Amino acid sequence: MPRRLPIHIPQTTDELTTGWLTEALRGSASDVGVPDAEVVAFKTGEPGAGVGFSGLTVRVDLTWEPADPALPETVLAKFPTDIANNRGLVESEGTYDREFDFYERFSEGFPTRIPRLLYAVRDPGRAWSSMDRQFRILNRVPDWIARLIGRYSHKMVRPTKRRFAMLLEYVDGARVTPLDEIPPEADLQAILGAQALFHAHWWWSPVLHDEAPFAWRTCSQVPHILNGGYAVHRDPVVAQYPQYLTPSVMRFADWVDANLTAVVDHLNDKMA
């Protein structure tokens, strides 16, 4: 299997072109009855809400020829982060592939409101058997070695050269709640209601037995690896961001650190 597709896949805003956007959005243009429409100009900027830490998220305003109100005026483009350590950590747990698998397989007809997938492309990755072998090896190491890996994971992981690009519907008025704020009661009710719909839709669903994306399990030693990283970086990060990482926030963070094993066991339960 080739490791890179023989096509152009932009990884930054500088690599975006009108031609690539036209081809990527060809399906969307055809769906609304304007198959020959072309993107003749575009402008990039920051999205209205949220900041990505594992990737680059960009608002792209489009100019079409011929113009048609049914064509998307704005899309959200997503690329991997260019910070090598962050990308290595993200890829080691298959985070990009998880997101792509989710949007490609489940975004249509999803029980709660999510951005519509317009286009997604990625280079081929490792086989499931390779990832499974990695997890089995990690699961056999002693806890102290796993914690040691966590302490030095930022030096050990290496990003791949795979390319990822995704275009999503741009949702105007989308909001996020910053770490240092408690959502208003109305938001909390909406969040819990959406989670209830989500769980009811997938509860005991046979699709949860499918290999992708559910083969991406969190290995049992991940809590110990994260414990090691947390022990090294906790105090320096708190000292750098005291306005966000208040004593009450850190009490919760320390609780999560101490109970990660139970949390991961819960996440790994397919409930199917």
Short recap of the structure:
InterPro entries: Kinase-like_dom_sf. The protein has 272 residues and is an alpha+beta fold.
Largest sheet: 5 strands, antiparallel
In whole angstroms, the N-to-C terminal distance is 32 Å
Strand content: 5-15%
User: How much is the radius of gyration in Å?
Assistant: 21 Å
* Spatial order of the strands forming the largest sheet: 1-2-3-5-4
How many distinct helices?
10
CATH architectural grouping of the domain at 1-125 and 160-176? 2-Layer Sandwich
Share in helix: 40-55%
Protein name: Aminoglycoside phosphotransferase domain-containing protein
Walk me through this protein's architecture.
- The chain is of the alpha+beta class.
- The protein has a domain at 1-125 and 160-176: Phosphorylase Kinase, domain 1, CATH 3.30.200.
- Helices cover 44% and strands 14% of the residues.
- The chain contains ten helices and five strands; from the N terminus they run H-H-E-E-E-H-H-E-H-H-E-H-H-H-H.
- It has helices spanning 18-24, 26-31, 84-92, 95-106, 128-140, 143-156, 185-202, 222-240, 247-258, 260-268, and strands at residues 38-45, 55-65, 74-80, 117-122, 164-169.
- The chain has a five-stranded antiparallel β-sheet, sandwiched between helices.
- A hairpin with an 8-residue loop joins strand 2 (55-65) and strand 3 (74-80).
- Helix 6 (143-156) packs across helix 8 (222-240).
- The chain starts with 17 loop residues before the first helix and ends with a helix.
